[in-house]
Design brief:
By secondary structure, this protein is mainly alpha-helical. 64% of the residues lie in helices and 1% in strands. The protein contains eleven helices and two strands; from the N terminus they run αααααααααββαα. A two-stranded antiparallel ribbon has the order 1-2. Strand 1 and strand 2 form a beta hairpin. The protein starts with a helix and ends with a helix.
Length: 308
């Protein structure tokens, strides 16, 4: 038993090392896109914090979702955040499964390049939208009488450019459209295309719907914020996805990685990563040998017909 565990552990370690080498090569080719996407995340956070300085609390607008869904209240506001955290962490862990599992379909670096491209496009539209019209926030800390509803004038530039977690959780003014739904829908659509478990895909869409209702019931967003997120994110992902080069499907046993700058594909003969049992060079050699045997057989057949 201990021998079997040791052998499996050795295979797992080799798989992790081989996958790490492959992902590092991909990261060296795509680091600019990853870095650009992360910088845009900071810019989005900065814009969301900055709009809080312009927010002015006022009466809550008439909202159909508020009329239909009962209010959860302050003490249960954590429910929607818990669901979002579960979706976020589950997706992040899934993107790193190629390091552990033998059966895999994606490359971690390439999937995050696509995800960041989707997020940046959606967040760019979101910044334009919530700066165009600053609505009075329906959340409890954004209402009239709350000291968090408005931010005092900053004392220095560092206070403006420094983003703290408390400011993210207690922001006001960045309403249309929901940032939580941007992340959730991008993650769900990405797994819908590149995931392999049908049951998880169905559950993911149900969770996205449930999160939408919880956000409205928690009064963190108006219903319009959630509805606009649903059709905007889906349309953005659809069009951006068609503009990006398609990722190679590793589940088909492909050994191709898009590592060359001129767009050509490079062969990667690593059977530990893709789970292929044969060496590409050996397969090519066997193919050539089979072709030579077939050619010799054809010559013998012609000789027999000619009477030689």
């Amino acid at each position: 038993m201990s021998l079997y565990i040791g052998r499996e552990a050795s295979k797992l370690w080799k798989r992790i090392c081989a996958e790490t080498t492959t992902e590092i090569n991909l990261l060296l080719e795509n680091w600019k896109y990853i870095l650009g996407g992360l910088i845009c995340q900071y810019i989005h956070g900065l814009a969301a914090r900055s709009v809080h300085y312009f927010h002015r609390p006022g009466p809550i607008l008439q909202d159909t979702g508020f009329f239909l869904l009962p209010e959860l209240g302050k003490e249960r506001a954590y429910v929607s955040e818990t669901v979002f955290t579960f979706v976020f962490l589950s997706f992040v862990l899934w993107t790193f499964h190629p390091f552990i599992l033998k059966s895999k379909k994606i490359y971690t670096v390439l999937i995050w390049v696509r995800v960041l491209a989707f997020l940046v496009a959606c967040q760019f539209l979101r910044i334009i939208t919530f700066y165009s019209t600053i609505l009075p926030g329906p959340n409890y800390h954004c209402r009239e009488g709350s000291r968090l509803a408005t931010l005092p004038r900053p004392d220095n530039l560092l206070e403006v450019f420094l983003i703290i977690p408390r400011g993210v959780l207690y922001g006001c003014g960045d309403l249309i459209f929901s940032s939580h739904m941007i992340f959730s829908l991008v993650f769900v659509r990405t797994y819908q295309k590149y995931g392999s478990r049908r049951f998880i895909k169905q559950c993911a869409w149900l969770i996205a719907v449930a999160q939408s209702l919880l956000i409205i019931a928690s009064r963190k967003h108006y219903t319009v914020d959630v509805i606009v997120a649903w059709y905007t994110v889906n349309l953005v992902v659809f069009f951006v996805d068609h503009k990006l080069p398609e990722m190679p499907d590793r589940s088909l046993g492909g050994l191709v990685l898009p590592l060359s700058k001129d767009g050509r594909m490079r062969e990667e003969g690593t059977k530990l990563i893709n789970g292929n049992s044969g060496d590409p060079i050996d397969r090519r050699s066997r193919s050539q040998a089979n072709g030579k045997v077939n050619e010799d057989s054809d010559n013998v057949h012609v000789d027999v017909l000619d009477g030689n």
